[in-house]
Amino acid sequence: MRTQYDVVIIGAGINGVAIAKELAAVGKTVLVLEKNRIAYGASSHSSRLIHGGLRYLEHFEFALVREALRDQKYLLETYTDLVKLCSFYLPIYQNSKRPIWMIRFGLWLYSFFAKHGQKASAVSIKDFTKEFKYIKEDNLKAVFRYFDAKTDDYALTNKIAQQAKDNKVEIVEETEIKTLFLDNNIIRLTTDKGVVETNLLINAAGAWIDEINTKFNLPSSYTIEKLSGIHIVIDKVLVPNPLILETTSKRVFFIIPQADTTLIGTTERSEESKIDDIKINNEDIEYLLKESNRYLKTELKRKDIKDVYIGVRPLIKSQKDPTRMSREYKLDLHYIGQNKILHVYGGKLTTFPSLAKKAVEMLTKNG
Fold first, then answer.
1. Is residue 131 pLDDT above 90, yes or no?
2. Residue 318: what pLDDT?
3. What pLDDT sits at residue 321?
4. Contact partners, residue 63, CB within 8 Å, separation at least 6
5. Which CATH number is 225-316 given?
């Protein structure tokens, strides 16, 4: 580890390593400091989807969906070994809270925005029930199929990190920032691995961003809503392709095949604790079992659960219900004398390419 860098980035999640990679490509010397390991937080605890966010259309977040689908196309073409397009199925039942016309129009619009060339279509109930043997067919009114992508979030983040390293980015894991000195001339960080100086600090700590800002009294324009989400991993394959389903409260959740298991998620719970103190809530496990069992012919039991994992999404705080909070990101840039501090708020796995490019453009347009 050197003592002077053009840029120091806090956090080796997907956004941190992607920004590091882009900055190195324009000739900057970059150091990434990570308290734990690469992809320790939400970057390895997601639903493992590269998607535009079909449900965001319902909240009129058209710009977010279009950007995410552009990024999806880029990722499908660039990381062919890690990002795969596949069929998603959306069954509509008698008690569904969204009418068929709304679903049909939403899927048409989603396909229109998508860049992969595959169009959504109706699927016969007979064909659906033949393929999805564990899913109830009583009161099933219609089924639609559309296309999105799956990935291995941990592997993808580490792939980007390796590309950054290949561009001479230094990523130091398991290191903690002890002190941060800031004046008009320099930013000096003391870590348990040494002291480094820079004039450009990027806080890409994800869910830890507010804690970093508070600890070191950094200027910032936003705060986050800490929204935890769990996934349960079932010890058998329940579906041949991903299903998108509706809860009793009109939320959306997925049932996704993963090798010889099935991934079910996610939940949304506002958290007040520090990030490292947030734990899996038993109520959330029961909630996912209950909602899944509404659609399954044979009910899942606790003994069917192979694993449970939790991630915390850092959404920009607003007065909205957490389910309706935007997944858009904000790049919050501050000037202090000769120094720049950039905070990365929000974002989702799919949009890291656009986020990283915008961050670099913002930081380099004035030198």
1. yes
2. 62
3. 60
4. 328
5. 3.30.9.10
